[in-house]
């Protein structure tokens, strides 16, 4: 079968690889849809960042590059391994693409996103979903609730990242929020905020176009064009002068963090869920004068089911608004990765159909 493999910076290839064999305790899935993630683009442009190299294989998978990419996916079970119960051929499923040891204190407490051996399928090994088939252990498999499509379930992965961040924010019902960065994770945070009872939610980005359209379609109460106006001034004017209760910093850039510090309300909270390429400078005195808390949020844990249920019962709707392209696997490099990099203003999320 064909699989998109990471060989190095600017070097991803559709290679012919063997179909994975279904082991005991696993199911084999025919991938219906797999989203291209911002972290995939980072890896492509500047990697290996998260991809293990031959001199340092991943501690859990023992694998190193070249590795198959793709972690935001859903599909259909085509084979069931020995000892698997409760799953059957033709079941539609989403896969929680997280790898963790399952034995350490953090894993046993349910905080498996913080496991020292943490990694993601499609990044550190374990196969990847930019391929026709993948085999995965059953504990990562979530059957889709009635009415949820595999396309929605592929987008559920980034929504889980936003869902976890909203949990970390401690936002009260009806509270106000600002999301800085309107890429897929920023929009996923907006979706989670609206589904979890936030009141006024603003989204800010320097890029308008498709990202502004998607933010407004997904229920943002205000879009701030950060290329032409001050985020802090715009959000204070819209929130009665003091600023939002919580600011989500999703961009991973110094300017965005400075905007978060400026915009957040006194006694408010900044949640950072970006991956940083460089160190960030934090003006603690400005935060001190407002008694602001900073919390960080990494991936998600125990939230996949919750998000799929929220899609099924309609608390999350209109996920389509995030999807700006659907392409076959054969077009993944040009029509997927290159398009997202070169036409950032026209795209949010591109789904690949292997
Ligand atoms: Zn992702
Ligand atoms: Zn662990």
Give a nutshell description of this structure.
With 354 residues, the chain is of the alpha/beta class.
Structure description:
It is a single chain. The chain has 354 residues and is α/β, with parallel strands linked by helices. The chain folds into two domains: 2-143 and 318-353, Quinone Oxidoreductase, Chain A, domain 1, CATH 3.90.180; 159-296, Rossmann fold (3-Layer(aba) Sandwich). It has ten helices and 18 strands. Strands 3, 5, 6, 9, 10, 17 and 18 form a seven-stranded mixed beta sheet that branches. Strand 1 and strand 2 (11-16) form a beta hairpin. Helix 3 crosses helix 9 (304-312). Bound molecules: zinc ion (ZN) (2 copies).
CATH topology category name of the largest domain: Quinone Oxidoreductase, Chain A, domain 1
The hetero molecules present are: zinc ion
The string of secondary-structure elements, in order, is EEEHEEEEHEEEHEHEHEHEHEHEHEHE
Q: What count of helical segments does DSSP give?
A: 10
- Could you name the CATH homologous superfamily of the largest domain? Medium-chain alcohol dehydrogenases, catalytic domain
Described by the principal axes of the CA atoms, the overall outline is globular
Low-confidence stretches: none
Count structural domains.
2
Helix/strand structural class: alpha/beta
Helical residues, percent: 25-40%
- What is the straight-line distance between the termini? 10 Å
